[in-house]
Amino acid sequence: MNMKRISMAVCLFVAACGGEDGDSAAPPIAYEDMSFEQRVVFMNDVVMPEMKKVFVAFDPKFETMDCTTCHGNGAIDGTYTMPSPQIEALPATEEAFLEYVKDPEKARWSQFMFDEVMTRMADLLEVAKFDHETAPNGFSCSNCHTHTVEEGPSEAP
Ligand code: HEC
Ligand code: HEC
User: Fold this and answer.
1) Which of 7, 34, 56, 100 is the most buried (most CB within 10 A)?
2) Is 129 helix (H, G, I), strand (E, B) or coil?
3) Domain Cytochrome c spans what residues (predicted)?
4) One digit per residue, pLDDT tens: the chain, 157 residues?
């Protein structure tokens, strides 16, 4: 439900929160001002090659990464709607997320996502990265991931 709090939870979980910004190859027009067609070109020319480098450095299996890796079916039907239901849904609450990252693999991925993917993508789009204090509505996990629907509490209080 509250994705911003997920980023906050990652922030608590990851040792160092923050990181450097700003060495991106800025496009001549800001992403937010681009038409849909310009966004397609920008994704092809800038986002895809840059993000592929980031993902491949984490895991060589991303050599074969393409638009569907992030956009799922949206890259097939041409809508490119985000977030993508084909990327694993993340837990919806901070509590559930902290439980989720007890799995070392989920923790490893989440740390990579937080440190590299979220930061690099926000830079490329020239939007603020989620920050609990300065950019509570900034770019976060929930721009790409959906969230699992919360089931009722398993233990009644
Ligand atoms: C690393 C993940 C990633 C990859 C790879 C990627 N995109 Fe995107 N794309 C995004 C994100 C994130 C957004 C912006 C969502 C938002 O506004 O929050 C986006 C937005 C878009 C949009 C704009 C959608 C709209 O509603 O205006 C288009 C079009 C698009 N991408 C096309 C592509 C194409 C074509 C490719 C392959 C060449 C591609 N994308 C590869 C992550 C990705
Ligand atoms: C720019 C888009 C984008 C952003 C932002 C993003 N992710 Fe991801 N994430 C992906 C993609 C794409 C994959 C799937 C890669 C694949 O196909 O294996 C993924 C995979 C994961 C996985 C592995 C899931 C599994 O299959 O085990 C985890 C965990 C994860 N992300 C957590 C996060 C967290 C936590 C955040 C925020 C701190 C975040 N992601 C931000 C795009 C994104």
Assistant:
1) 7
2) strand
3) 46-129
4) 456 666 667 655 654 444 444 445 555 789 999 999 999 999 999 999 999 999 999 999 999 999 999 999 999 999 999 999 999 999 999 999 999 999 999 999 999 999 999 999 999 999 999 988 999 999 999 999 999 976 655 554 4
Burial 95-113 (b: 16+ CB within 10 A, else e): ebbeebbeeeebeebbebb
Tell me the residue range of the domain where 114 lies. 3-16+50-143
CA distance 148 to 108: 20
Query: How many structural domains comprise the chain?
Result: 1
Ligand at minimal distance from the CA of 82 is 1
On whether residue 153 sits in a domain, the answer given is no
* Residue 52 Cβ < 6 Å to ligand 1: no
